[in-house]
Hints:
- By secondary structure, this protein is α+β, with helices and mostly antiparallel strands.
- The protein has helices at residues 3-15, 21-60, 153-156, 180-186, 220-225, 231-238, 258-268, 278-281, 283-321, 323-331, 336-372, 379-382, 393-415, 423-428, and strands at residues 63-67, 80-81, 97-104, 107-114, 119-133, 138-146, 159-162, 175-179, 193-200, 203-215, 226-230, 244-245, 247-252, 273-277.
- The chain has 2 domains: 3-53 and 286-428, no CATH class; 69-270, no CATH class.
- It has 14 helices and 14 strands.
- The strands form 3 sheets. It has a 6-stranded mixed beta barrel. Strands 2-12 form a two-stranded antiparallel ribbon. Strands 3-4 form a two-stranded antiparallel ribbon.
- The two termini are 30 Å apart.
Amino acid sequence: xxxxxxxxxxxxxxxxxxxxxxxxxxxxxxxxxxxxxxxxxxxxxxxxxxxxxxxxxxxxxxxxxxxxxxxxxxxxxxxxxxxxxxxxxxxxxxxxxxxxxxxxxxxxxxxxxxxxxxxxxxxxxxxxxxxxxxxxxxxxxxxxxxxxxxxxxxxxxxxxxxxxxxxxxxxxxxxxxxxxxxxxxxxxxxxxxxxxxxxxxxxxxxxxxxxxxxxxxxxxxxxxxxxxxxxxxxxxxxxxxxxxxxxxxxxxxxxxxxxxxxxxxxxxxxxxxxxxxxxxxxxxxxxxxxxxxxxxxxxxxxxxxxxxxxxxxxxxxxxxxxxxxxxxxxxxxxxxxxxxxxxxxxxxxxxxxxxxxxxxxxxxxxxxxxxxxxxxxxxxxxxxxxxxxxxxxxxxxxxxxxxxxxxxxxxxxxxxxxxxxxxxxxxxxx
Length: 430
């Protein structure tokens, strides 16, 4: 049996009856608190970023294909012919090859890789701004035209009343899907009708729509501005043929593959078309999400500092309490490093106890939040009504291992106190 480990087990067993047991419990409690807060914070921030990103990508897709002359504004209307070599071919792409630069021994080499996922879906869209006039109110709106290829899986989760737009094969649908925010301001409901006014080439046009459903995504900026209609309505308003659209939305399976797939899509386009990721179209939202990483780093650094400081204090007290034992071991010829390892093993035992309870508390809180949603958010400011959690077991394992290793490395410093203890004085000390 390992000598140092054996002695540390006996010291730990007797430590529960010594005067330092309160210090040990405080140290274990600090470790438990630190790891619980880190697990909770990481899960909440990861869930928050994932939920917001999925909402934005679900509403707009991951990649936009538009005319080369279209600027940053989504409202620039340049028709694209729907008959393209990439449509609907792209949604059959299961993975994409790409080149990754890897640094080895100070040299940069290129390695061939393939994306984890491919392209899930591609669909057409067209946009047209207008003004809604109901019986009571007037409201600005942007109509997003969608066709039969529109994937309703995302919107189906957010339709609060009514149903999706019914696309007939021959007749153009007059259905419109508006947001809850727009419905409240206009004081209308499912089944009501209103007129939308447009200006096209200096001519005033108007169309009557029937409210088929009301949705709420929680993305207040989009809910306030957008409504969904049959794409043929937009085509007629803009004077386009049925084979002309405003662009294509591409949905991918794994967000980590966004850049290589965007490069692949761009390579499949003709010279008069351009592709752009939604991250580059709406950089302010994703920059705001990236700021959450700073909050996460600060919280983890503070919690790790709490664990380290408490464990260092506890180790110093344990060494001073066992000064007599240290003196006897030195008199028997035990090396300083062996004695220090005894206390490092003891500290690891305390930390493992704290990590156990911290994981139990942290994962338990995350599970309760995921199950019951007791932490509420202001949806107008955070785009979510309930704080989401994303429990990643690999992240939790990394937090535990990292906390244990980093703290033990710092504990090597106070363990040097063992070297300063004189055997003769220590044995006399009672």
